[in-house]
Request: fold
Amino acid sequence: MRTNLAILLAGLGIAIAAVPVSGHHAFAAEFDANNPIKMSGTVTKMEWINPHTWIHIDVKQPDGSVEPWMIEGGPPNALYRRGFTRDSLPVGIEILVEGFRAKDGSRRGNGTDLTFPDGSKLFLGSSGTGAPR
Amino acid sequence: MSYRHIVAAGTLAAASVIAAFALGSAAAQDSEGGPAPEAGAWSQSRTAWGDPDFQGVWRYEADIPLERPSQLEGRELLTDEEVAQREEIEADQQAKRLEGFEGGAVGRLSIAESPIRGNEYNSFWQDHGRPRQVYKQTSLIVDPRDGQIPYTPDARKAAARSTARYGVGPFESYLDPDTGERCLTDGVTAMMWQGPNGGHNQFVQSPGFVTILHEEFRDRRVIPVDGRAHGNIRQWFGDAVGHWEGDTLVVDTTNFLDRTNYEWASIWTRPSETLHLVERFTRISADMMDYQITIEDPTTFSGAWTAVIPISRLADDTQIYEYACHEGNYAMPNLLSGARADAAKKSASPR
Reply:
């Protein structure tokens, strides 16, 4: 499906990313595309800062210790317009994060996917998810 | 205004501009040309002091690329069938997003597959707004008619270098990331129709002034429309003076200050000191604005070029949010430490 759609889009001359690349920090400079991460953690804080939000989580290790991690999310304004408020990820909630680790090896990552323990996705079933007005 | 009407209006504007350039006339600058207004049709409202009223929040929501894709070489307009096909794809992708599908399911490629660096963020983090509007125009650039930026040979090389360094570096200092990465500005050239983290533009008018507040970086332009001449102070956003030609706001901007001192990711947005912008804002309906920008800069381009850009008005209750941002926040240390990690890896690996 993915391949087919990509071919269809390319055939039509549709730019996959319509917004031209402009002056914004590039993923490749900060995160390592060859170092994917997947972890469950408990939300301890969410920083609503530009240009990207950061979710702080505590990740329990097999030996019982706790590692604090920081996960980069979307721009605050875009999240808010999609119905994401500060109640969407309350402190103490557990989430499964998939993404890519910071190049410098610190406990930071970019969050490409975010799932709740019941398997539901962040925006699934919520209101104000960017519906046409 | 219905979807079809939006498409029709965009097509009309694009076609009339293309025709005007083909004829070498300036007729397209005015909004005549269309069919005679019907009874009860939209007419331009006015402020209390009589200027055309553009107030509200506007955003670029179309799917038109700046430059014409090579697959469409030689074609200025899509066919009705191609428009219908694209509308179907846009509607399908929008529906999938609302159903919670993300990633490849909505047409976004994985990191490995993405041909565009910097496009690796998953779509669920983004503000999709409404489905992208489909137009017949195959490029925002209508002049030159091949739909391509007319770079000078040197600027073309610089553009290739800046594309190659985007996301790669060198990042030796906090001055190496561009001014957008540093939360300062992406420049005025693309302000009306770009801003991945907040492309909203609020127009506020008062007697003698039109002010545009852009959400991302909280960029703002205070444009005098009181007949004054250009000043002589160079500024990052240049020195803008506006006047009304009929119901069209014409803004002439010179005296840019180039503090980029590196090659921007999009070199055509560089505010070189020889840059001269002429912008024409014409409201063509309650919901649509025809925005034309002509860019002249002998430092970067071999000739002037013009883009015709449809801008949509958002609902009355649309708000602009704050965009407080400081030097990329965590992005800056991540960029710099990432570059150090890359360098260390390189020097540790056997030659």
